[in-house]
Amino acid sequence: MEDLVTPFSWRGRKVLLTGHTGFKGGWLALWLARLGAEVRGYALDPATDPNLFTAARVGSVVEDVRGDIRDAAALERAMQEFAPEVVFHLAAQPLVRYSYQDPIGTFETNVMGTAHVLDCVRRTPSVRAVVSVTTDKCYDNKEWVWPYRETDPLGGYDPYSSSKACAEIVSAAFRQSYFPVAELGQPSGHCVAVATARAGNVIGGGDWSTDRLIPDLVRGFLSGEPVLIRRPHAIRPWQHVLEPLHGYLLLAEKLLTHDPRFATAYNFGPVEDDARPVGWIAERMTRFWGDGASWVQDTADSPHEAGYLKLDASRARADLGWVPRLRLDQALEMLVAWYRAWQAAADMHAFTLAQIERYQALVGD
Q1: Among 26, 93, 239, 281, which residue is least crowded by beta carbons within 10 Å?
Q2: Cα-to-chain-centroid distance, residue 47
Q3: What pLDDT is stored for residue 1 in this prediction?
Q4: Is the Cβ–Cβ distance between 230 and 302 less than 8 Å?
Q5: CA gyration radius, the chain
């Protein structure tokens, strides 16, 4: 068990991170490496070009292993050979609209991929903490005005949301079957603490995903064309990517204490005032970007997406001491600065680390 008096340090800790070539995974990989962790990433090639992994040279500070979480044998080799103490599972098919095009691939990746990760964990004796990242869209969305709590029913209208609800159920089943909370840290028990993390809509520099608001806006601004925006009245819990990542780090630190109360699900969302409509974000982005940036509403038919979604992060505040530090305008200014620096061919490894360092100073880490 961790010494609760000594300040926590990531230095020298071995961390396996799935999804390190993605947007959130790339930011987390850089942050962990900066904290002194020894990081092995396991993921597919970056899904877009450009991408954060290449732009910020993430591979220069982590061990870069390419593989599919649907390949159980390759994943098990990568995990057991490395013998990590902590596993962050972020690899996923992360897009709602794409899940309509490839529902089977979405379920295979998000459900069976999560099962493979946890099954490898139970055969890797070195692992002590697992943070399995899902999404705010795992809830059975009633389109009500109240924020969702971790105890609310899971569900999902579309294949993506449903697959993430299933990933939560899979994580709970493995925890109950192989890593029961009541036996955590006991002499005759086990030493693996498993938690899940449900974050709101994350934004930040280096996201070039298709069918996401910020990347769509940036691509349009760079091309000089008005950006087509669907569902401008839809409300989402927007937050800078560093906010939930800070929560994931705090959660992993708590899991390593073997206190059973932390082996559960956590929401990470912004303050209520920062759950804003899509159109509000588009207006702010055009103002911060300048240079004649503009947007128009897309009137074409599109698949169903939730219209209203907020998260209650009271559990994270009470258990982890986690609170949002950036207001939405600050987050938007940061991401515009990132893309502007990239446009100017700046050193994006150094620029990204500088944003992480400024955030760390803000939270006092």
Answers
A1: 93
A2: 16
A3: 43
A4: yes
A5: 20
Bridge partners (DSSP) of residue 198 are: 267
- DSSP code per residue over 17-73: EETTTSHHHHHHHHHHHHTT-EEEEEEPSPSSSS-HHHHTTGGGTSEEEE--TT-HH
Residue 198 CA to its chain's centroid (Å): 8
Separation in Å, CA 246 to CA 13, 169, 199, 202, 357: 17, 24, 11, 12, 12
Looking at the domain assignment, is residue 5 inside a domain? no
pLDDT at 317: 97
* Tokens matching residue 280: 């509000």
What is the predicted pLDDT for the residue at 2?
45
The token pair at 129 is 């903490």
User: Please, what is the angle between helix 159-178 and helix 113-121, to 10°?
Assistant: 20
CB 2 within 8 Å of CB 8: yes
Secondary structure (3-state) at 121: helix
Helix (H, G, I), strand (E, B) or coil at 321: coil
CB 209 within 8 A of CB 49: no
Q: Which structural domain, as residue segments, surrounds residue 318?
A: 14-299+309-359
Lookup: tokens for 181 = 């909370």
pLDDT per residue as tens digits for the range 23-65 = 999 999 999 999 999 999 999 999 999 999 999 999 999 999 9
Q: Provide the annotated active-site residues.
A: 160
Could you give phi then psi for residue 196, rounded to 5 degrees?
A: -115, 150
| Nearest CA among 255, 358, 360, 221 for reference residue 15 | 255
How far apart are alpha carbons 143 and 350 in whole angstroms?
41
Please tell me whether residue 5 adopts helix, strand or coil conformation: coil
Give the domain CATH number at 226.
3.40.50.720
Q: Vertex 183, ends 198 and 197: CA angle to 5°?
A: 5
Q: Which pLDDT does position 5 carry in this prediction? A: 46
pLDDT of residue 302: 61
Chain Cα centroid distance, residue 163: 15
Residue 4 is assigned to a structural domain of this protein: no
As a whole number of angstroms, the distance between CA 208 and CA 205 comes to 9
Whether residue 106 is contained in a domain is answered as yes
**Domains of the chain: total:** 1
Beta bridge partners of 238: 201
The parts of the chain modelled with pLDDT lower than 50 are 1-5
187 CA to centre of own chain: 34
